[in-house]
C-alpha cells in the first residue's frame, strides 16, 4: 500500500474566525459539516487534493496537521512508538474512518487514518 497524504486539518481555538480568515484569503468555503460540532470540511477548489477540514482544538494548542493513509491505525501508532515517537491522540473511530495522531522523536505531530 502506498501512503499518500489524504487529509489536512487546521485545529483552532476559534474555528469560526479561522474559517472566515481562509475564506477571505483564499475563497475557501464550507463544503459540509463533519462528525462533531464545529468540525467542517472545506472546499478548497481542488478535486484531486487531500480533504481539508477546520475544527475546534483536539489538544492543547492550535495546529495544522496532515494525515497519512495506512491500513491499520493502531499498528501504525504502535510502530511509531517503537521508533521513538509518542501517541498524541489514540486510535479512535468516527463514521467511516479510524484515525490517530503521533508525535515523532523531533516533536512533529502527524495523523494516520484508515477508511473503516
H and E string:
EHEEEEHEEE
Distance between the termini: 16 Å
Fraction in beta strands? over 45%
> What's the pLDDT, averaged over the residues?
92
Class by SSE composition: alpha+beta
| Gyration radius, in Å | 14 Å
Helix content: 10-25%
Q: Low-confidence parts, pLDDT < 50 over ≥5 residues? A: none
DSSP helical segment count: 2
Number of strands: 8
Largest sheet: 8 strands, mixed
The dominant shape is globular
* Arrangement of strands in the largest sheet: 2-3-4-1-5-8-7-6
Task: Write the topology of this structure.
Layout: E1 5-12, H1 15-26, E2 29-33, E3 40-43, E4 51-56, E5 63-69, H2 73-82, E6 86-94, E7 97-103, E8 109-115
Parallel strand pairs: 1-4, 5-8
Antiparallel strand pairs: 1-5, 2-3, 3-4, 6-7, 7-8
Q: What does this entry look like structurally?
A:
The chain is α+β, with helices and mostly antiparallel strands. It has helices spanning 15-26, 73-82; strands spanning 5-12, 29-33, 40-43, 51-56, 63-69, 86-94, 97-103, 109-115. Strand 6 and strand 7 (97-103) form a beta hairpin. The mean pLDDT is 92.
List the defining traits of the structure above.
116 residues; alpha+beta
Question: In a nutshell, what does this entry contain?
Answer:
This protein has 2 helices and 8 strands; from the N terminus they run βαββββαβββ.
Amino acid at each position: 500500500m502506498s501512503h499518500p497524504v489524504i487529509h489536512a486539518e487546521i485545529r483552532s481555538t476559534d474555528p469560526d474566525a479561522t474559517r472566515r480568515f481562509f475564506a477571505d484569503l483564499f475563497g475557501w468555503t464550507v463544503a459540509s459539516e463533519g462528525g462533531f460540532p464545529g468540525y467542517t470540511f472545506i472546499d478548497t477548489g481542488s478535486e484531486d487534493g487531500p480533504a481539508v477540514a477546520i475544527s475546534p482544538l483536539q489538544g492543547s494548542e492550535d495546529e495544522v496537521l496532515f494525515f497519512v493513509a495506512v491500513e491499520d491505525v493502531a499498528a501504525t501508532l504502535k510502530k511509531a512508538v517503537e521508533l521513538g515517537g509518542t501517541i498524541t491522540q489514540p486510535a479512535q473511530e468516527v463514521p467511516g474512518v479510524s484515525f490517530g495522531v503521533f508525535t515523532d522523536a523531533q516533536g512533529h505531530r502527524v495523523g494516520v487514518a484508515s477508511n473503516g
